[in-house]
């Protein structure tokens, strides 16, 4: 499996479970619509009134579980950045390519966008015998 194969798998997945750390240092999770850049970054939108927003602003380390059709999954750890300025338009383009219907979210009060840059990724395919597992470290992804 190459980083290109991993991108294709992630891009085929529309949803991911985002894990963040709450103010009491306890884990919190939420299901979000995702898009994936060619650099294996995950982009999603949320409202600035949500727990995930507050958690990521205070503690940007986060993780995702993506996949689960059959037994192919991705575990993903990274660092989230709220998008602003010139970066915002670039990443919105990637997000809207995956989610064109979400352009309507631009009219929502408090809508914001995050990009998560990967630090560690594990692809697992337990549909194969023996199972196939490949880890990607930050240096493999750049």
CATH hierarchy, class: Mainly Beta
Task: Give me the count of strands.
Answer: 8
CATH architecture verdict: Roll
The CATH superfamily appears as: Electron Transport, Fmn-binding Protein, Chain A
| Cα Rg | 15 Å
Order of helices and strands: HEEEEHEEHEEH
Shape: globular
| Count of the separate structural domains | 1
Stretches where pLDDT is under 50 for at least 5 consecutive residues are: none
Q: How can the largest sheet be summarized?
A: 8 strands, antiparallel
By secondary-structure content and strand pairing, the structural class works out as: alpha+beta
Provide an overview of this structure.
By secondary structure, this protein is an alpha+beta fold. The chain has a single domain (3-141), classed as Roll (Pnp Oxidase, Chain A), CATH 2.30.110. It has four helices and eight strands, in the order αββββαββαββα. It has helices spanning 3-12, 51-58, 85-98, 138-141; strands at residues 15-21, 27-33, 35-36, 42-47, 61-69, 72-82, 111-125, 132-137. Strands 1, 2, 3, 4, 5, 6, 7 and 8 form an eight-stranded antiparallel sheet that branches. The model has no long low-confidence stretch (mean pLDDT 95).
Short description:
This protein has helices at residues 3-12, 51-58, 85-98, 138-141; strands at 15-21, 27-33, 35-36, 42-47, 61-69, 72-82, 111-125, 132-137. The chain is globular, with a radius of gyration of 15 Å.
List keywords for this structure.
142 residues, alpha+beta, Pnp Oxidase, Chain A, eight-stranded antiparallel sheet, 4 helices, globular
């Amino acid at each position: 499996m190459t980083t290109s194969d991993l991108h294709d798998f992630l891009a085929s997945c529309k949803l991911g479970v985002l894990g963040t750390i709450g103010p009491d240092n306890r884990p919190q999770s939420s299901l979000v619509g995702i898009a994936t850049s060619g650099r294996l970054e995950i982009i999603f939108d949320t409202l600035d009134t949500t727990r995930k927003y507050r958690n990521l602003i205070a503690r940007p380390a986060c993780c995702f579980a993506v996949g689960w059709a059959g037994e192919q999954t991705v575990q993903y750890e990274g660092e989230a950045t709220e998008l602003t300025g010139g970066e915002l338009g670039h990443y919105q383009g990637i997000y809207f390519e995956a989610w064109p219907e979400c352009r309507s979210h631009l009219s929502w009060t408090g809508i914001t966008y995050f990009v998560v840059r990967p630090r560690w990724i594990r692809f697992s395919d337990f549909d194969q015998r023996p199972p196939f597992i490949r880890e990607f470290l930050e240096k493999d992804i750049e």
